[in-house]
Specification:
heterodimer; A: 407 residues; alpha/beta; Aspartate Aminotransferase, domain 1; Aspartate Aminotransferase, domain 2; 7-stranded mixed β-sheet; 4-stranded antiparallel β-sheet; 17 strands; 17% strand; B: alpha+beta; Sufe protein. Chain: A; 4-stranded mixed β-sheet; 41% helix; globular; binds pyridoxal-5'-phosphate
Chain lengths: 407, 150
């Protein structure tokens, strides 16, 4: 184990980690659903409300200018953290789901009947359903790249599915259910060769490793703040300037307009064009604070620590009888999905909960993936850099309890 | 007994391991599919009605121990009942699982159904236990349809 990683100090930064559940210390292994928040984020949000709260872009008074400034700085800070040069390419949204909807809504008019959208079978519902609705409206054909038995994208099939009719490829960077890290640069290059636009769902990638989004080659990249140790209700849609500029508004109202007449209006440029109404100001500030915090911990060290933890967990859990690990990609983040021969994932989840161990059980909002794998669901332990080997041991003990009931 | 042993009583675990009347019921007169969108559990309940009462009931599908055991117990419990009896039984079980009052369970009278009461201490799992019963009600309704416990 990386002995230099100051795990005790880091855990102390997350107040909730010292809670007990059913009288036992919480073992939080549901980071894929949402992550816990460090004191730095909680304080940044609380400080904003205590000292700077005001609406933005509208007041001439001091507080409003301060709040506007804080909101704009948050955007710049986040742009820098995710490796994009221009803050104006960073649109604040509610989360990954809203970001996909915004792009699907904006692109809809461009599709002709017979055009194709290339997806993969491992997508979260958030990156499936908006495209299904678009496809039904516009007569678009959806294609889905299959997976290898290890849970990696079948790249040969993916390449074969990219064709002259492919207008858009939309795929996840990291699978929420399997932990697979997809070769997004290569996938982007293949799709671009066919002239397709490329959208990457980074909801499960951003929490795990450092990113230089502008270097990936895609047109759109998106993620949710709550999964990356920031507040809920805030997320980011990044788009290449020209692509963002070519999209029509998503919602309309105040703040996104240039000039309003009684019967028509003109719209501002991105990002404001897509941020109708009062935005989630404190959320943006909290998310910027999350990136500050993560850089303070050090992305490389965090990633290395989590990888060692994943290896340890894979070995310990894998050695239990009757366990099948679902998703054995060569490159993974800290996600361990598994089934137990004798117990259904929900029964596993309930018994683990009585031991204070929080995991996710079910289809992980990826029903087509479960169908593809022929599984009703899995149990999923998803790790963050604040989890420990001792917590993996607690998971294993709790699984032994499940086996005592069900084997 | 602690709450967990209350939930996973031997009766429940037994029905889960060796469910009664699992499989397609042929011929059948009524059927419906029940689905819990939150967890993806899916049950198909089939019954055969003859001379005004349920001659047989069977089920197929995927689910957790609680939903499977509940379906298995149900197929035993409703056999031989007439429509009124089935409706009464469904009402009693739903009350047992979801009623506000702590239920008084009569082991003698309720049999294996009593074992389902352990689910009350696990609110996220109540829907697993009610799924089969809602689905049976749907199968016997005027317009059989799929039901969803959301
Ligand atoms: C891969 C992936 N995409 C999209 C989402 C949707 O994120 P949100 O619910 O925050 O909009 C999730 C959340 O689970 C996810 O895991």
């Amino acid at each position: 184990m990386t002995s230099s990683f100051p795990i005790d100090r880091i855990r102390a930064d997350f107040p909730i980690l010292s809670r007990t559940i059913h009288g036992k210390p919480l073992v939080y292994l549901d980071n894929g659903a949402t992550s816990q928040k460090p004191r730095a984020v909680i304080d940044a949000v609380s400080r904003f409300f205590s000292e700077e709260n005001s609406n933005i872009h509208r007041g001439v008074h001091y507080l409003s200018m301060q709040a506007t400034d804080a909101y704009d700085r948050a955007r710049e800070r986040i742009a820098e953290a995710i490796g994009v040069a221009a803050a104006r390419e960073v649109v604040f949204v509610r989360g990954a789901t809203e970001a996909v909807n915004l792009v699907a809504h904006g692109l809809a008019e461009r599709f002709q009947p017979g055009d194709e959208i290339l997806l993969t079978v491992m997508e979260h519902h958030a990156n499936l359903v908006p495209w299904q609705i678009l496809a039904q409206k516009r007569g678009v054909i959806l294609r889905h790249a299959p997976l290898t038995p290890e849970g990696e994208i079948d790249m040969e099939a993916f390449a074969a599915l990219c064709g002259p009719k492919t207008r858009l490829a939309a795929f996840t960077h990291v699978s929420n259910a399997l932990g697979t890290v997809n070769p997004v640069v290569k996938m982007t290059r293949l799709a671009k060769q066919c002239g397709a636009l490329v959208l990457i769902d980074g909801a499960q990638a951003v929490p795990h490793f450092p990113l230089r989004i502008a270097e990936l080659g895609c047109d759109f990249y998106l993620f949710s703040g709550h999964k990356v140790f920031g507040p809920d209700g805030i997320g980011v849609l990044w788009g290449k300037w020209d692509e963002l500029k070519s999209l029509p508004p998503y919602q309309s109202g105040g703040d996104m307009i240039e000039r309003v007449h009684l019967t028509h209006s003109t719209f501002r440029e991105p990002p404001e064009r897509f941020e109708a109404g009062t935005p989630h100001i404190s959320g943006a500030i909290g998310l910027a604070a999350a990136f500050d915090y993560l850089e303070g911990v050090g992305w490389e060290a965090m990633h290395a620590f989590e990888q060692e933890l994943l290896a340890y967990a894979t070995e310990r859990v894998g050695n239990l009888g009757g366990i099948r690990i679902i998703g054995q990609a060569r490159e993974k983040v800290g996600v361990l999905s598994f089934t137990l021969a004798t117990a259904h994932p929900h029964d596993i989840g309930t018994i683990l909960d009585t031991e204070g161990v929080a995991i996710r059980a079910g289809h992980h909002c990826a029903q087509p993936l479960m169908e593809f794998l022929g599984l009703p669901g899995t149990a999923r332990a998803s790790f963050a850099f604040y989890n420990t080997r001792e917590e993996v041991d607690r998971l294993v003990q709790a699984l032994e309890k499940v086996k005592r009931y069900f084997d | 007994m602690d709450d967990l042993s209350d939930l996973y009583q031997d009766i429940i675990l037994g029905h889960n391991k060796r469910p009664h009347h699992y499989g397609e019921l042929n011929p059948h007169t009524h059927e419906a599919e029940g689905y819990n969108p939150l967890c993806g559990d899916r049950l198909c309940i089939q019954v055969r009605e003859k001379d005004g009462s349920l001659e047989a009931a069977g089920f197929t599908g995927e689910g957790c121990a609680i939903s499977k055991a509940s379906a298995s117990i149900m197929t035993d419990a409703v056999k031989g009942l007439d429509r009124e009896g089935v409706a009464k039984k469904i009402g009693e079980v739903l009350e047992l699982l979801t009623g506000r009052e702590e239920p008084v369970v009569d082991l003698m009278e309720q049999g294996d159904i009593a074992a389902l009461a352990g689910v009350r201490k696990f609110p996220p799992r109540v829907k697993c236990a009610t799924l089969a019963w809602h689905t049976l009600a749907a199968a016997l309704s005027e317009e059989p349809r799929s039901v969803s416990t959301e």
